[in-house]
Design goal:
210 residues, alpha+beta, 8 strands
Length: 210
Amino acid sequence: MNIRAGSATGRVGIVVAALAVGATTALLLLPSSQKDEQVVRRVPGAADEEAPIVRALDPTQPLMPTGEKVSLTEAEKLLGFSIPMPSGSDESNQDAEVWFSATTGEVATRFGSDLFIEYPIWAPGQDPAREYSEQAASWNQGEVSEISGHPAWLIPANSGGEGLPPVPVVHISMGNLDVTLYGDMSMDSLIGIAQTLEPPHVLADPGGSA
């Protein structure tokens, strides 16, 4: 797998940006049981997170314990919206594993042993910039910034101690997704990949033909 990351030199410094959810993405499908719940994400500094992250970067291991591999088209139909995927290489998305969990309604993607991405859904009313700022301050890890105009939280490897997290982590809010990238690479390379993501959009006919 060879993803060519875009340049990270144009990224903005530390900012706390306001939430900007487009009209087409504000109504992305969300199970009714989750309407009033806050998005739950991995906390890279948690003491029990190193092993799950390492396993998720191992293509011989299941990416989602309760999920199964599906095609990108199948996952998008099940979710009702497009899934932000890296661009910049003709083969990058062809090599991707796409996993969907019918139990949780969540999706994740993996690109060999270099990168995996999770796509938690923000709960209505959550402000991503504020959420990132509060978590960065609470865990004393990383910095809140912007990537391509989207609120972001950048967490260097080992910022919570040796192996916590074991790799750099980038959270970037796109539409109502907390797109979370874990990469066995430099932070600049991971930011470069995040810069290639396209925000999600609601599919015109999720149940229709591809």
